[in-house]
Amino acid sequence: MSYDLFIGDRAFSSWSLRGWLLFVKFGIPVRTHVLGLYSGTLSDDLLPLAPARFVPTARTPEGWVIGESIALAETLAERHPDAGLWPEEPEARILARWIVAEMHAGFAALRTACPMQLFHQYRGFQVTPEVSADLARLEEILGQALARFSDGGPWLFGRYSAADAFYAPVAARIAGYDLPVSDRLARYVAAHLSDPAFRSWRSEGIAMSYDPMPYARDLPIRDWPEPA
Ligand SMILES: N[C@@H](CCC(=O)N[C@@H](CS)C(=O)NCC(=O)O)C(=O)O
Fold first, then answer.
1. Which residues belong to any copy of the GST N-terminal domain (predicted)?
2. Are strands 3-7 and 221-223 parallel, antiparallel or unpaired?
3. Cα gap 10→144, rounded to integer Å
4. In what order do the strands lie in the sheet with 57-59?
């Protein structure tokens, strides 16, 4: 028996990407179902999963529904203790939970100004003071995790953890809007862009066509920055 995961359009639904990575990166079997986020049917599609109102929403093999990505991360960590969703080291685990919660509750300026889109890279995006403050906070918290716990690897806490799943869409925003970041953060972004799970999600996402393109910006575009 497998879990079911209900997601939105892969190219645009940042929370869906988080939810999906929480299964796929930790080897937890899941069947994925795409709901009508942009076709306008989402509320009806979610009726059988009440009281869910957003994607991602998951359903356990027992038929129990899980809404909210943090609840999903904690539920999967509890039910699959050997999967390694959270770092093993207690202090690292505290910081991982902290930055996941901060992502879940914060970064409103970045999220509003730079909605996730995986099709191309916008050029010439004007960084507002509010977005700049969010980028500075990312440098601080991700920088601290990388400096203290990454063990020289690309991920925040050594092995890929739920925290990396939560920051994958942030990496996509930095890439998709060519946002200015430090070399350390740029390396972290590159790790996400070259991650096989992320790449597979993106290629399914951009196989869809949209007219009009959601979140289109009146800016020059160039190809998505493929990792070297
Ligand atoms: N707090 C939720 C956020 C989920 C969310 O906002 N999902 C968006 C798609 S990325 C959605 O379902 N939007 C539909 C709507 O706003 O009606 C979580 O952590 O899962």
1. 12-78
2. unpaired
3. 30
4. 30-34, 3-7, 57-59, 65-67
Predicted local confidence at residue 228, as pLDDT? 72
Separation between Cα atoms, residue 65 and residue 55, nearest integer Å: 12
Confirm or reject CATH 3.40.640.10 for domain 90-205, answering yes or no: no
Q: How many residues does the chain have?
A: 228
> Residue 183 contacts by C-beta under 8 Å, 6 or more apart in sequence?
none
Bridge partners, residue 67, by sequence:
57
Q: Is the CB of 5 under 6 A from ligand 1?
A: no
Integer Cα distance of 92 and 163 in angstroms: 11
Q: Do residues 121 and 177 make contact, with C-beta atoms less than 8 angstroms apart?
A: yes
Q: Write out pLDDT tens, residues 128-165.
A: 999 999 999 999 999 999 999 999 999 999 999 999 99
CATH number of 3-83: 3.40.30.10
C-alpha span between 112 and 220 (Å, rounded): 19
Indicate if ligand 1 lies below 6 Å from the C-beta of 57: no
What spacing in Å lies between the alpha carbon of 89 and ligand 1's midpoint? 31
109-133 pLDDT, tens digit each: 999 999 999 999 999 999 999 999 9
